[in-house]
Amino acid sequence: MAEEVGLDLEELRQLQNIAKRPRVLNLINSEISNLEKLRDSAAITSNAKPEVPVTVPAPVSTSVKPVSPSVSYVTLGTFSWDQDNEKVKVYISLEGVDQDNVQAEFKPMSLDIKIHDVQGKNYRCAIPKLHKEIVPEKCKVLVKPKRIVITMFKSSRGNWLDIHYKEDKIKPSLEKEKDPMAGIMGLMKNMYEDGDEETKKTIAKAWTDARSGKAADPLKGL
Questions:
Q1: CA angle (103 as vertex; 102, 106 as ends), nearest 5
Q2: Second label for 33, Cα 20 to 30 Å away, from 48, 64, 87, 104?
Q3: pLDDT tens-digit profile of 187-206?
């Protein structure tokens, strides 16, 4: 556009030089003035720097999220249980429980049940070590109107003496396994100490025969 305006001005100035009548000169001068203004305006526009939009950074939130307090639980230490050869059932008496608020964690040798938001309280029933192993993926929790039923499937069929782990009290004596006669000798000693004279003579003879190899059973003849 600036180039076209320049060419028009050049041609008008040539006409201005050859024009003689005042009215024609006035028209030419007026048009030259208009074109000069248009030229100057175009020059200013072309030289002006494009306006760059200023991006205002979004405000960064510096607020710290509140840390939720640790959940406290009321321990449920009282419950009932029964069993058959394949499973063990635990019964917890508690009303107003929502099935969605029960969190159960089953492991091969432990049980941990957490019950949230029951009339403003949280409850927990845990058995850190069961009597024997269970199958966690088969275990389940069922919420009823007045109680919670926990079903645990035994890893091996059989009867549990208790739901909690306990050491087997009946263990064979290693010494007796090494010496089968030890128990018999102990019995003879007690009989000798508590017996009358005739009994003591008989036991003494049997003891002597057993030590000398004459009798395989030291109690024979008693």
A1: 130
A2: 48
A3: 667 666 766 777 777 777 77
